[in-house]
């Protein structure tokens, strides 16, 4: 049978068009940056339910006591910003809750009826991990006293206890079997002195513990063996990954950077790549569907991890995280207006749950009897001795003040030590890259003792000390007002003079914004008011108190 040349050309063109349609369909399934249609009835529409500032990113989503809780901070660099906010779906109220004296917040956890917030990089922690626990209204600080610890990145319910993922140069695991009252060092990852190790995204999957581990310039998925970590074969090596999520008895994660990140899955024995790529930033599962969000606002879901359905885009911001909470989907990120932004369903209900238990406290039930005059004199002698600072003996002062703070030091004990004349010495920190005043370090140590003891006698002058430190790349500062504010919060010091000093500081022109955020956090804690960054509301409240 013969065909004309024109007919053959027509057939060829139609064939190419068909191949193009098939190829585009395949690209749309494998690359979510390509548009395709989804049935309107199946789309999930998430609204903007909260926008908070002054910091640009919202993250760390968690549900507790009928509210959605989240952090507002600066990401991607050292910065002393870490505010905790809540959104109440029933009332539509967004409320400023707490300031964490930290560079960002770690991953929170609801554990035994209480909400725990780790300090990702605690300020002036003296090498100890810091966690704050709340029942939804009141807060209590907890210290992980296994130095050195500078980072507490995650909390996890683990082996019938509470596990904290920590780090300095070495990644570590600290375990508490009494809800955070006491901690024991469980594991320190062996790390050469020329490298840094980090454990992240730890979770329990099929009865075994998995995590992201970076050390000796190698990043990999690892399994806990009981005494260390073993690399999971088949999972990509030396590639960034995040968003580790369990869905339908499989472990999923996002691998890579840029616009063509991949989704990988692991069934406990074999890791394979899902044929789906895009600028993904986070994964979550609501038990029925696996959800992934991209940094361009596109939202997708899948029942099985293979076939994906696109939902309505998230508007007016760049998502950084997504979380399934009580069957609802929420996303958080950076808003176009420079504030943190939250997306969710306004009509979704987060259960209040049962009445929370009493807050955890680290005050010892049985205290050690101490000769307070002798202990005070020993601390005074160390503080006044120049060799305490030249020979790095400040650790002895910390040890004595710690013991005194938890064993019933009499009121005024630490305030009396603040009167000691400190020699005009300097202390080198951060590998000799920073020079600190001995006076600031000594007073910070004493105020930390006052903080743990709950002594409400911080000198008012410390709260109004002018800010004079130049910026540094570590964003670490040890001026006296920082330690003083933390001690005021922990002790509940809320007399008229303290409140007046804090309110006056809101008008200090030389204070950086992050320092003003600590003043606001301190005022919130001691007043019980939740005005956040509404300075006019604070002043109106202060005027009403005077009247």
The main pleated sheet reads as:
4 strands, antiparallel
Oligomeric grouping of the chains: single chain
In terms of DSSP E residues, the strand content is 25-35%
Strand order, largest beta sheet: 1-28-27-26
Provide a concise account of the structure shown.
With 547 residues, this protein is α+β, with helices and mostly antiparallel strands. Helices cover 24% and strands 33% of the residues. Helix 2 runs antiparallel to helix 4 (394-406), helix 8 runs parallel beside helix 10 (513-527) and helix 9 runs antiparallel to helix 10.
Note down, in words, how this protein is organized.
- By secondary structure, the protein is an alpha+beta fold.
- It contains eleven helices and 30 strands.
- α4 packs parallel to α6.
- The longest helix is centred in the first third of the chain and has 26 residues, at 5-30.
- It is globular, with a radius of gyration of 27 Å.
- The termini are far apart.
- The model is unreliable at 7-41 (pLDDT under 50).
